[in-house]
Amino acid sequence: MARALAEVERGLQFRTAAWIDGEFVPALDGRTYTSENPATGRPLAEIALCGAADVDLAVTAARHAFESGVWRDLAPAERKRILIRFADLIDANNDELATTETLDAGKPIADVRALDIPDTAGTIRWHAEAIDKLYDQVAPTGPAAVGMVVREPSGVIGAVIPWNYPAQMAAWKLGPALATGNCVVIKPAQQTALSLLRMAELAGEAGLPPGVLNVVPGPGDVVGVAIARHPDIDVVAFTGSTEVGRSFLHHSADTNLKRVVLELGGKSPQVVMADAPPLDEIAPKVLDAIFWNMGENCSAGSRLIVHRSRQAELVERIAAAAASDWLVGDPMDDTTRIGPLITRSHLERVLGYIEVGRAEGARLVAGGGRVLEGSGGHFVAPTIFDNATNQMRIAREEIFGPVLTIIAFDTEAEALAIANDTPYGLAASVYTENLRVAHRMARALRAGTVGINTYSEGDLSTPFGGYKQSGFGGHDKSVHAHDQYTELKTIWIDMTETGS
Ligand code: TAP
């Protein structure tokens, strides 16, 4: 397998221009930027550095495609056929897309091949499959009128996405937005534009008409802002930090009141009750929740809130497993579970939080620093702090790296209070063998997704979104994701006959 992927890597030809109106085009002013491989710190590709004028061009193409009806007026079954072909092409190009994603984002190749790329295709396919099975409504009016309640595509969707799951985050937006008949202008994170640019080409090959999907790479404070403020974009869907998400609401208010949907950060609790299942069962799940994807995960279970009676044994187990099971290494190596962090500056941010944890007096029980420095990559050892309090910065702020903070509790009420004492509310998990406690906690936790005896984001059939400052205005995944890309229209037909 390693040899086969090395061959794929040698043959890679990155798509580096913007994808607008069905073709690759350079930035209007011809500028480019260099993206780097986070595992080596070396340059990987020269990518079009787009600006506001490129966004204008993309929005014009999307608007034209939308108004022409070339996509929205297709029968849902026909849109389905094209999108399923798109999904099939993603699957067929798994090795190429996975290798690209790993080189670009530093994600472990085994995870990307087995999960990220299949889930990307699966997301497009799921929404495509749904779209010719959803009915509109007829209101209970009585014979004097027919009241139809229909959903129509919103128009031109702007999307701005982060670097941690580049292909998957794109699919979470594109799946429901395209299936419901919209046209899209999407900005990938600068660090990770390559997989989406290739996917756009595959969408064209699948038969998506020109202008229906447009990809505009470039900096957030230029291209992202231009999308956020564009008067001809109807909805903007953003995934990223709470701080930047907040600015989208200001931009909308200041311009055309476009609908804003935000999927934001988190500081998600994992609560281990006194009557939790055996610790050898739950320890691997606890570590998956925080170390998966280097902890660069919005729903990472970054606070472990554990009953004092189970604390010592659980800490001992996970500290040992962090070192033995979570191998840090070259992400192109099949056995690697933790690759590099995305950039040098993000590495420094995460290392800064590790220093903060030490200074705040939490007890370091695993990791605690940079590793594999000679590679030039941005590697951090999986790190665990015990004996923290929920007031410490390492318990309150999103670190977005492989750093777990452990807080002990004595009563269920205390556990719940600590878990909910955060400005975020994206995910939570509870470990208990008591059904009543499980139900009670699941209801009382202020989070968009609660896993019981597991860490989970559900599957494509379940909505994903945040309470409090983890989200705003909608959800990704499931048929609920269709709502944010469609308008609800009432058509009222008078059935009374006059003069007969
Ligand atoms: P951000 O810095 O917020 O960046 C996300 C996207 O916004 C990037 O494409 C970025 O562009 C763009 N952007 C940056 N500044 C902008 C501005 N002033 N105006 C408009 N767009 C701007 O987040 P990140 O560091 O990439 O990603 C990590 C964050 O995303 C974490 O907080 C994480 O929790 C969150 N996240 C949430 C979810 C869900 S589903 N809730 C999923 C994944 C990640 P450039 O970076 O290219 O400049």
Written overview of the protein:
The longest helix is centred in the first third of the chain and has 23 residues, at 109-131. It is built from 16 helices and 22 strands. α13 links the parallel β17 and β18. 41% of the residues lie in helices and 20% in strands. 7-thionicotinamide-adenine-dinucleotide phosphate binds next to α8 and α9.
Estimate percent helicity. 40-55%
Major β-sheet annotation? 7 strands, mixed
Strand segment count:
22
CATH C-level class of the largest domain is Alpha Beta
Return Rg in Å.
Answer: 24 Å
> Strand fraction band?
15-25%
Say which molecules are bound, naming each kind only once: 7-thionicotinamide-adenine-dinucleotide phosphate
The side-by-side strand order for the widest beta sheet comes to 14-17-18-13-12-19-20
Structural class: alpha/beta
The CATH architecture of the largest domain: 3-Layer(aba) Sandwich
C-alpha geometry: globular
The CATH topology label of the largest domain is Aldehyde Dehydrogenase, Chain A, domain 1
By CATH, the superfamily of the largest domain comes out as Aldehyde Dehydrogenase, Chain A, domain 1
Can you tell me the residue ranges where pLDDT is under 50 for at least 5 consecutive residues? none
Number of helices: 16
What is the residue-averaged pLDDT? 97
Total separate domains: 2
Distance between the termini: 79 Å
